[in-house]
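Checklist before submission:
- one chain only
- standard amino acids only
- sequence pasted in full

Submission:
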Amino acid sequence: MIQQFADWLTYNIFGLIEYSKVADSINFFVYDSIKIIVLLLVITHFMSLMRYYLPIEKLRDFLASHKFFGLDYFSATIFGAITPFCSCSSIPLFIGFVEAGIPLGVTFAFLITSPLVNEVAVVMFLGLLGIKTTIIYVAAGILIGMVGGAILGKLKMEKYVEDYVWKIKMKDTENNNEREKFSWKVAKIISKEAVDTTKKITLYVLVGVGVGALIHGYVPEGFFEKYITKRNPFAVPLAVILAVPLYSNASGVIPIIQSLVAKGIPLGTAMAFMMATVGLSLPEALILKRVMKLKLLLTFFGVVTLGMILIGYIFNWIL
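Returned file contents:
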């Protein structure tokens, strides 16, 4: 329905020529903006409801009690893998984790893994690239999540999370024992919190998707295949850097990866490109800027970028 509305608005109301650069950009912007905002509203409502009723403290305690050999980070990455969210729509869950008092490093492990690995990506990988590549990709996504989360946890950067997030946490803690049965009054409280959270980040979503829409419509076809080649020793970091401005989920970029591999681009380079596209998008950075300070945001992107580049080189070497 969202795609039909975007097509109707672009081609019938605006009267733009189908497949033109302007039309592609506007169509992309309308579709993705509506889709992400709807997802944000749904997920923030869910997280508000979960914070109000479910024992988030038990999840926090479970993760805190499973630190042996990094099982807390592994549990967070597995939870990230089974949640079918893109980088932008997984951010409300990230906020909910922080508000619940789950350690920041463990929370980042979830945030890193959630957009990289999900059931849609696994099914498409199996169908397009085979079981071996699928297993390698899932393992790489979980590894980056665990190691990246552990590094960010060791850096002790909680002070760089925006103050309003901690205030929500304190408010939730104060009201923890005052839970009413579900009613219209409770529904209004939950909805207000969810809408307020969505309002705080909607502008960042629109700006980020707008940049992505311009790139989507105006980057020349074949641009990436031209520069990301076997002969270029800097192909892996170049692939990651070029992918960051692009915004897509795993299901949207996997067919591109298939075409890149078919044209002779090394699998590790193609995987690094995909990981950066779905896990280091510019819209994600703009949204995260609303919940964390610049130093933490840059550290997060730096750690994850380095991990993706290393994964690309390692898999190019062993495959």
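Reviewer check: Residues 170-177 have pLDDT under 50 and may be disordered.
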